[in-house]
Design a protein that fits this description.
By secondary structure, this protein is an all-alpha fold. It has three helices and two strands. Helix 1 packs antiparallel against helix 2 and helix 1 runs parallel beside helix 3.
Length: about 140
């Protein structure tokens, strides 16, 4: 039966990341919280970068009113490559964090939530008010 548990001994996603002590669990909670925090920061950075890139394109076409709408402006190859790389990193981190939660360990799941909440709070003002990335695109849809 799969239920959340409070065990200290746990394997976190990879065999080499085996927790065997309270100190190991504390270190893992800190590490996972940091990874989750960084995920939120990277997401905010990607949104801001994409908005800045589209803003640069809009200035060059003098269509500022489109900034509040989803536009079909053509990004350069470099801009698309950077956005694609950021998307791959974000997707990898989100799946990693999902697998951490799937250990059903309360401490590790709490670490994911804590890091995400703190990251969201810290990077909230860094996010553009009219972010180009829609709300449905920031979570796993399995």
């Amino acid at each position: 039966m799969m239920v959340f548990h409070l065990e200290i001994e746990e394997v976190v996603v990879f065999r080499f990341w085996a927790i065997k002590s309270v100190a190991g669990m504390i270190a893992s909670v800190v590490a996972i919280s940091f990874i989750s925090f960084c995920y939120e920061g990277l997401r905010a950075f990607r949104e801001r970068l994409l908005l800045r890139t589209k803003g640069r394109l809009l200035r060059s076409t003098n269509e500022r009113s489109l900034l509040t709408q989803r536009t079909n402006l053509k990004l350069s190859r470099w801009d698309k490559l950077v956005q694609t790389a950021l998307q791959v990193v974000l997707l990898s981190l989100s799946y990693f964090l999902m697998l951490v939660v799937m250990t059903l360990n309360v401490w590790l799941s709490f670490a994911v939530l804590l890091g995400d909440a703190v990251g969201y709070y810290v990077f909230f003002d860094y996010r553009p008010a009219n972010a180009v990335v829609s709300e449905g695109e920031d979570h796993c849809h399995i």
